[in-house]
Amino acid sequence: MIIVMKKNCTRDHVENIIQLLKEYGLGANLSTGSQTTIIGVLGDKTKLSDANLELMDGVEKCVPIMHSYKLASRDMVPEGRTVRVGNVTFGAKKVVMIAGPCAVENQEQILKAAEGVKAVGAALLRGGAYKPRTSPYSFQGTEEEGLKMLRRAGDETGLPVVSEVTDHEQLAFAEQYCDMFQIGARNMQNFRLLREVGRTGVPVLLKRGIASTVEEWLDAAEYIMSEGNCGVVLCERGIRTFETATRNTLDVSAVPVVRERSSLPIIVDPSHAAGKAAYVEPLALAGVAAGADGLIVEVHPNPKQALSDAAQQLTVDAYASLFHKAAEVARAVGREI
Amino acid sequence: MIIVMKKNCTRDHVENIIQLLKEYGLGANLSTGSQTTIIGVLGDKTKLSDANLELMDGVEKCVPIMHSYKLASRDMVPEGRTVRVGNVTFGAKKVVMIAGPCAVENQEQILKAAEGVKAVGAALLRGGAYKPRTSPYSFQGTEEEGLKMLRRAGDETGLPVVSEVTDHEQLAFAEQYCDMFQIGARNMQNFRLLREVGRTGVPVLLKRGIASTVEEWLDAAEYIMSEGNCGVVLCERGIRTFETATRNTLDVSAVPVVRERSSLPIIVDPSHAAGKAAYVEPLALAGVAAGADGLIVEVHPNPKQALSDAAQQLTVDAYASLFHKAAEVARAVGREI
Amino acid sequence: MIIVMKKNCTRDHVENIIQLLKEYGLGANLSTGSQTTIIGVLGDKTKLSDANLELMDGVEKCVPIMHSYKLASRDMVPEGRTVRVGNVTFGAKKVVMIAGPCAVENQEQILKAAEGVKAVGAALLRGGAYKPRTSPYSFQGTEEEGLKMLRRAGDETGLPVVSEVTDHEQLAFAEQYCDMFQIGARNMQNFRLLREVGRTGVPVLLKRGIASTVEEWLDAAEYIMSEGNCGVVLCERGIRTFETATRNTLDVSAVPVVRERSSLPIIVDPSHAAGKAAYVEPLALAGVAAGADGLIVEVHPNPKQALSDAAQQLTVDAYASLFHKAAEVARAVGREI
Amino acid sequence: MIIVMKKNCTRDHVENIIQLLKEYGLGANLSTGSQTTIIGVLGDKTKLSDANLELMDGVEKCVPIMHSYKLASRDMVPEGRTVRVGNVTFGAKKVVMIAGPCAVENQEQILKAAEGVKAVGAALLRGGAYKPRTSPYSFQGTEEEGLKMLRRAGDETGLPVVSEVTDHEQLAFAEQYCDMFQIGARNMQNFRLLREVGRTGVPVLLKRGIASTVEEWLDAAEYIMSEGNCGVVLCERGIRTFETATRNTLDVSAVPVVRERSSLPIIVDPSHAAGKAAYVEPLALAGVAAGADGLIVEVHPNPKQALSDAAQQLTVDAYASLFHKAAEVARAVGREI
């Protein structure tokens, strides 16, 4: 933490701050320039969270230098973490391909989807049972029955399954049916939910909030990890910007940024970023080229009849095309699928 | 709903869509222009949520014409709704002044804050007990004890109290202590929580999500109202933009936009928008001038010792200055405080 | 400037930087914390623009501490600058009311507009002659003839006139007809144009770029001022965000932020921010309440026949209503109109 | 164009609009639904730019259906346009590799850069001579001398050269030295400059404005094309969002969006998007994977001594690594370099 003093600060102002830091067991390094005075705080800055230095007389601003997350940081595990879900490993050489419909609608639909994506080569099956929807009048998901149907589809095809949880009360039930929990973008800062999935041993796919910085996202991962669950996989799924040509703007730069700052695997969701089937493939390939550890793609046996997000779901054939090109791109960047 | 056809669409494409609409009990109005064909959908479009017209062959795009919210819309109550909390009414001539600390820290602090803002003239007391914090290592609130302390401070000063709830499990307890629930920006799309507060009879202060459009915000209000609780007051508290000079960007335009589209009262939170005490007063005055039905301002008996959001909390003296100027501005626009 | 070193930086890395700073005639202040090392740069940092410290081995990042603008800064003229245009002063107690049509269309229209806004009480007349339009197929302005018509309307009503210049070649001509030049949002970083208006003695109304930070805006003002023209008035006119309910999002916080950082007067343009006549009045009042030194409002004698921006132009009657309420709000905050 | 009427509009309101459309030689298609009335406008909507339908009584809003650009649209040349610069073709199978320093600093530097990137395999040389800089106190470019040095470096290495023009007065001179003009992000809506480069026969690299939508970008291209110059290559270089981990946010989705809407080639600039050398390679690969027709990358013989944008320029060695990986990715998506 750097404390920048006002131009007209007095010697007393500076002394008071140094005194305060001392009370917190921290040291101070004074840097008196021609135009301004700067105080470097020495020691563990977490002690300072309640000190409110910005309000001290003579202070212009405080500039944080360190991250607030620790377990999620790259420093902690410089070689990178891996996360295992069934027989699948995130963060290894293989790019993990997750696919399935937006929502589990009925047993036949999810089974057909599972068989379709399995035949193409997907490694995990996705399907939403608890659906957070913007309007209360939209289809709200098949909930517990949906999870059971998803599990059956996973079992029949030998695919581990991932599904979104939106409330900690669902965890005890969902744990019996899911190999991986997804935390959706809207719940990225639902801290109670984060803590509770942190108390399960179930790996977590943590989507980035629509308006969250990478730093806030890593802080959210830290909530899960600080409860003892380090099986967190990050998922970039597009952020909200002024551009309306796509549903969201895929922030593909998040892949190298996360790689630099965090040890956690990161995958890309081109479907929610695009919001339109025609753009899903190019965004998926961009994600792999940028170094993503996996892709989560919405695939529906018959998108025209989908109960939600119809416009962005691929047919199994379109997914097969994406899959084979993604495999080529993966090879081009030294990975495989 | 308007369906815009592709330039090269065939007669069959158009026929298929008209046929599909028929199956949903809807009519179609064909508009064949020199450059494109447009189909207007006649009837209740909510039947269409599962029809996925965008994927039909020949379709360029669908343009929604109507809102998805009903109870929250202006049409429903053209003269505007009022919401009563204790002896206070939101949406009437009086601009409702809510004030208090970011967090309830201890009995003495909240009582001092309550006495301070009461003496100035505030109508409601605020104070956070359940604190959602970006980092798991920050102060997390005094929780149940905090609510009790808040209640006591409210009772001693005769002020109704409002406090944030972050989880539906808190409601049964919180209901005994709060006159109004606050749903914070991060939980604006925590749909389970919205539904559950909708099932209580407690008035709700619904903050706008940091990256939520006005439409999504009104959809969130609709979640609460569709459960039978129409006591919703909206609160603009700044949105996330590229500008970093302020913590968020106060979208003061939201006041007239909401006024036009919705019957619900809307207030302004200048403290979270500004993130800096020096900007709170001008933003508060701007909110009142734009027609806000109230202001919620963070006031702390000693901001330098605050456990959270220290930089944006006002002293009681600074609040008194804001209050008196706000009263002048309210009069200037035909309101009072 | 603060240089934050990497955790694993060596003593040699630090020495190399101190050596480099020395070569630039700068001092270094070393702050070795438990977790990181920080180097404070002492002396005039402008010498460093070509030093590229971020690329030195061992450097994590550089954190700028000082602004790059000087003449535009508050420090330079702590009491604030005033800018005089004809008999009007920006930055004094009086809130300056500028009004007129988006575009000068013909002599009758601009004269009628001038008479209308003059009767209401406006102090300056606006009217665009050179119109920057998004599409090449839209109406492009009346150009030189427009300026002459504007001048005549100003002369007949006794109002000084302000009009946008979009190219430095227009200046010699425009200078004969305008009392104040406007630089539009799209040209805020047209540095050649900024320099050239800086070389005239004509006061400048500098609109904020649609995606420009306050810092970049003040840097743009500095371009004008560094050529000797300190008659710069800033104009907040809305920024681009994700919200589409308004044409742009009025960043009313920019008023107190600019007030704190800069000595230049700042006015508000509610018309371009709103993009819709119904929202112009509340945004105008918000601007005055927040402390703006003026308002520039689009007023057309017959908006339905306007050749551009029809939706956001007010009738003279609507302007009269806005004007009188703005006068009340001005009084409420210790100003007048 | 679709006109959506207010719920409470009268029959007269509708009649008036139909009458007005008739006066403009346009037809109307009436669609009277259960909840609202919609009028489809039949005929050439460009006639309507001055009609201001939104202000007619009873009108809720107007929804545009067609683009305002024509020459830039995909419809015009469905198979896509190609743009030839020297012996290089944009929009063909080959991904065009442009490289060179941010700024031409001196003859030795630009020649060394040219030789370096030529040896790696680049097809075009870039180098800025007229530099638009945020602060007036930053290095402003070598201007005319710079262009001559760039030309010499291009001639000695056999590489065509591209350089930014910031003012139409530079064109006559620059035309003698450049094979392609670049219009920078800040000038994307400098309409005079667009028109003037449109009147030259020189191919244009048109960067996207930092806050411009794809639609506005294509409108800007239309300005150039409407003057007779169809040699426009679009360049995505990152947009401004709330995320600060990168200088800008690369909107890689713009590649498929432009491909769908426009016939113009599109390339990607990973350097300005990233703002940091370490992120340039992954973003470059993402661009190629998404289908970009080229890459423009900043390469400096010695980035540590660069006079501008030092942090984002690659060494020749780092560029060689990027180049070879990009070639692999290009092959993976059916292209070559």
From TrEMBL, chains A, B, C, D:
<dbReference type="GO" id="GO:0016832">
    <property type="term" value="F:aldehyde-lyase activity"/>
</dbReference>
<dbReference type="Pfam" id="PF00793">
    <property type="entry name" value="DAHP_synth_1"/>
</dbReference>
<feature type="domain" description="DAHP synthetase I/KDSA">
    <location>
        <begin position="91"/>
        <end position="328"/>
    </location>
</feature>
<protein>
    <submittedName>
        <fullName>Phospho-2-dehydro-3-deoxyheptonate aldolase</fullName>
        <ecNumber>2.5.1.54</ecNumber>
    </submittedName>
</protein>
<dbReference type="InterPro" id="IPR013785">
    <property type="entry name" value="Aldolase_TIM"/>
</dbReference>
<feature type="domain" description="DAHP synthase ferredoxin-like">
    <location>
        <begin position="1"/>
        <end position="66"/>
    </location>
</feature>
<dbReference type="InterPro" id="IPR041071">
    <property type="entry name" value="DAHP_snth_FXD"/>
</dbReference>
<dbReference type="Pfam" id="PF18152">
    <property type="entry name" value="DAHP_snth_FXD"/>
</dbReference>
<keyword id="KW-0808">Transferase</keyword>
<dbReference type="GO" id="GO:0003849">
    <property type="term" value="F:3-deoxy-7-phosphoheptulonate synthase activity"/>
</dbReference>
<dbReference type="InterPro" id="IPR006218">
    <property type="entry name" value="DAHP1/KDSA"/>
</dbReference>
<dbReference type="GO" id="GO:0009073">
    <property type="term" value="P:aromatic amino acid family biosynthetic process"/>
</dbReference>
<dbReference type="InterPro" id="IPR052899">
    <property type="entry name" value="Class-I_DAHP_synthase"/>
</dbReference>
<dbReference type="InterPro" id="IPR006268">
    <property type="entry name" value="DAHP_syn_2"/>
</dbReference>
